[in-house]
Specification:
single chain; 282 residues; alpha/beta; Rossmann fold; seven-stranded mixed sheet; two-stranded antiparallel sheet; 6 helices; 9 strands; Nucleoside_phosphorylase_d; coiled coil; Nucleoside_phosphorylase_sf
């Protein structure tokens, strides 16, 4: 992509992810999670890049870059606008179905790009495994978490830390353990951002399609992808065109990173050479 479009400055990583239930954010299926830097974290943490420490615990290593300033400013402006007026996301979703009615229908066994009904948004206690089957019809309703009923099915937007890694998480207890390992109050799991954040300046936007537990299924994936895309569309309205050119091109940034990596390798080689023992023949 960069070879075809060398002027690219940044990107939006839009897709689906798994919500992490917690006291901080009441994340529901179809909601939107946006990465936002907090403390010393750039908005995304890599949960499977850890080292063992002396007391037997695990410690997260390294950190990932923050989104570019132009996107963070746009996010802040949009968030402030939503404090005053409702989001345009519900309107975008309605317009999508009006222009493309087929998208509301089930295709190839997958439900359409529409809200799947609050009765299909079921969060079970972490210790209760899936009872089997393609859905949760056989799962004991008494094992569901008690959550307040929402007044609207419109997606809500959550800002915070996203946990990313190469491990496919489909167990609630593992989910909770991995979150604790990061040392951050994460609100979403996904599997792509960790490999991209340090190479490509971007903002991560995820529509929530499951809870990273054994009850995971594909029912909400299309709608979650639609809500994330609708947020990205609204966000772009808050990115001032003149400021886009202020950041360096991604291709230039990658060359700078390669140069720095090369310098680090050279310094390491020089250090290794200087530490080699010298033998003298007297």
């Amino acid at each position: 992509m960069l070879s075809s479009f060398p002027g690219v400055r940044f990107g939006l990583m839009v897709g689906i992810g798994a919500g992490i239930p917690g006291r901080r954010a009441d994340v529901r299926l179809g909601d939107i999670v946006v990465s936002r830097p907090e403390g010393t974290t750039g908005g995304v943490v890599q949960y499977d890049f850890v080292k063992a420490i002396q007391d037997g615990g695990l410690q997260r290593m390294g950190s990932l870059n923050s989104p570019p300033r132009v996107l963070l400013n746009a996010v802040a402006a949009l968030q402030a606008q939503h404090d005053r007026q409702p989001s345009h996301i519900p309107r975008f979703l309605r317009e999508m179905i009006t222009k493309n009615p087929t998208m509301a229908q089930t295709q190839q066994g997958l439900p359409g790009f529409v809200h799947q009904g609050s009765h299909n948004d079921r969060l079970f206690v972490a210790t209760f495994p899936h009872a089997g089957g393609d859905n949760c019809q056989n799962c004991n309703s008494a094992k569901q978490e008690n959550r307040t009923t929402r007044d609207s099915v419109d997606p809500q937007i959550h800002y915070g830390i996203i946990a990313s890694g190469n491990t496919f998480v489909k167990n609630a207890e593992t989910r909770n353990s991995l979150v604790q390992r990061t040392g951050e109050d994460c609100i979403c799991f996904e599997m792509e951002a960790a490999g991209l954040m340090n190479q490509f300046p971007c903002l991560v936007i995820r529509g929530i399609c499951d809870y990273a537990d054994s009850h995971k299924n594909d029912r909400w994936q299309r709608y979650a992808a639609a809500t994330a895309s609708a947020y990205a569309k609204e966000l772009l309205e808050y990115v001032p065109v003149p400021t886009v050119g202020e950041g360096g091109q991604v291709s230039d940034l990658n060359r700078q990173i390669e140069d720095l990596n090369r310098q680090v390798r050279d310094l390491r080689n020089q250090l290794a050479q200087s530490r080699r023992p010298v033998y003298r023949n007297d």
